[in-house]
Design brief:
Helix content: 25-40%
Structural class: alpha/beta
Radius of gyration: 19 Å
Number of helices: 11
CATH architecture: Alpha-Beta Barrel
Order of helices and strands: HEHEHHEHHEHEHHEEHEH
Shape: globular
Strand order of the largest sheet: 1-8-7-6-5-4
CATH class: Alpha Beta
Length: 303
């Protein structure tokens, strides 16, 4: 993930901002959630041969990566669908290899999210939806990553798109252009639109774009993309802040969270997921079964 990455983080203020005022309003309107917070945690891919012997058992073959990944994590930021619509037999294979309870979170096709009319002049959306429907009970929340040049003046196009998006599919949207964050009016208009269509926001926590850590919720589901810095000590402090925030949101009615971990080359993402799960269990009284890692990871001396 190149968006917002920095080579020098020494001057970055990693403190977490307060909730957006609209988040406070939303949470106050949510009914109490009698159940524990649903936590779906994962990385951005499973095809890491470097994980063999640590995340995956020794001598694991590439054809079995997904099977073992789905035993360690319960979701995935599924970027494969951003570049092509998978064949039915491919989806059946994915579904069959994934463990019970595992959820795929497909990224909306690039020819949709990055086209001027969000693909509405073609059949791309129908083809995409027809494809991912095949994931059935293993389909989680889709997410659409808007390109960096997508500005607030395109909001009417998004509204038309959402009016055509299937209601039964869960969707979260990530915005990146700075104008969304410097124009309170535009941000409020976006929030109202997403809330009207029951669309969640993607909250991105990355060093070089602290404005993307906007802390806006529009549904009872949060989707967080956390970009770490190679297990730097600030990664752990930021996770502590997120655990505290999720505890607060959960107490106010938040039902579920998708938490996707990014690290340089994503090789060290599993170790920080372990820390996340440990802290969630400790601070929220959950009983999540996080990844069990082999001897290939060197544990940090800080914790």
């Amino acid at each position: 993930m190149k968006f917002g990455k920095l080579t020098d983080i020494s001057q970055v203020d990693f403190s977490m901002p307060p909730d957006h005022k609209l988040t406070t309003t939303l949470l106050q309107a949510l009914p109490p959630n009698p159940n524990p917070l649903q936590v779906f945690f994962g990385c951005t891919g499973f095809s890491m041969k470097e994980w063999v012997g640590t995340v995956y058992p020794p001598k694991t073959k590439s054809k079995d990566y997904l099977k073992h990944y789905s035993k360690q994590f319960n979701t995935i930021e599924f970027n494969t669908t951003h570049y092509r619509i998978p064949k039915p037999e491919t989806i059946e294979k994915w579904k069959g290899n994934a463990a019970k309870g595992f959820l795929f979170c497909p990224k909306i096709l690039q020819t949709i999210s990055h086209s001027g009319d969000l693909g509405m002049s073609k059949e791309s959306l129908n083809w995409f939806c027809d494809s991912i429907y095949r994931l059935d009970e293993k389909l989680g929340c889709c997410f659409m990553q808007m390109p960096p040049y997508w500005k607030p003046d395109k909001l009417s196009i998004l509204e038309k798109f959402l009016s055509q998006f299937p209601e039964e599919l869960k969707l979260a949207i990530e915005i990146r252009h700075e104008d969304w964050f410097t124009s309170p009016e535009a941000f409020i208009q976006l929030s109202a639109l997403l809330k009207a269509y029951d669309i969640s926001t993607v909250i991105t926590d990355v060093a070089g774009r602290r404005d993307a850590l906007h802390q806006l919720l529009t549904t009872d589901t949060a989707m967080i993309r956390f970009v770490g810095n190679g297990l730097h000590e600030t990664d752990y402090h930021r996770i502590d802040d997120w655990v505290a925030r999720l505890k607060d949101w959960s107490a106010q009615g938040l039902k579920r969270v998708y938490f996707f971990m990014h690290q340089p080359d994503n090789l060290k993402s599993p170790e920080l997921v372990v820390y996340l799960i440990q802290q969630l269990n400790k601070q929220l009284g959950l009983s999540l079964e996080g990844p069990v890692l082999g001897s290939g990871f060197t544990q940090t001396s800080l914790f």
